[in-house]
TrEMBL record:
Pfam families: DUF6882 (PF21813). The lineage of its organism: Bacteria, Pseudomonadati, Bacteroidota, Chitinophagia, Chitinophagales. InterPro entries: DUF6882. Residues 1-28 are annotated as: Disordered. This is Uncharacterized protein.
Amino acid sequence: MSFLKKLFGKEEESPKDNPLQSANQEHGKTEQELLEQYGGIGLDKQRNLYEVIGNNAWNADLSKGEISFGGQLAFPIQVLGTFSHSSKTWLWAWANDKSSIPPNLLQQALYLKNHGEAHEIPLLKHSEFDAEINDLHLIGMIASGMFNTSAYYLADYGQGIMLVTFQSAIIDKNNSNDVARISTVFPELISTFETNHRNAFKNYVTRKGYTIDQQENQIVAENNGKRITAAFDELSRLTKLQA
């Protein structure tokens, strides 16, 4: 089963970080560039989440601006939007007038909207559109990377799914720079989403703290004695990944 299908669970108290931290970086100006920029690190953070969470039920309290799991763990959230199982449509939280979402929980969603309008990115600027589950993961990965959150979460409430991001010191402690993590996450990313493999790999390992040596047909990434080499063909498609 794909790791993308297993992200439901548990958590605990975390610092109240600025929901727009790191948002002043230079971001991709197309959906493809954003995926290449943040897809790897966004999916990597979900590994941290899955290692922490269990099978506990979730509960969201929008008045408190938090999501809790199993009655024990709670985290401050930003609400990105919702997906309807019946209509198969995505609705951005800033356009959801019926849910009365507190304005302070919409900061990341509104930043993404403004970025989408500035660069004509349909995924980010249109209030509602036909969607698939992978679109939620794409939005979650972009937001998680852009705002340096600990993870994103797909909260399924039966009729639909609420997509949120949140901060958690516990999740962050599970971060791994081991090459085995990269060797697992990156192939899943490029098998799930169409992207320029070379650009996505370069951005991913750089954000993991690796220094890179770019050669004509490969990238060698190193971090504290750990090395991983990715080879690509003339179309920048991955041909070999060796740790």
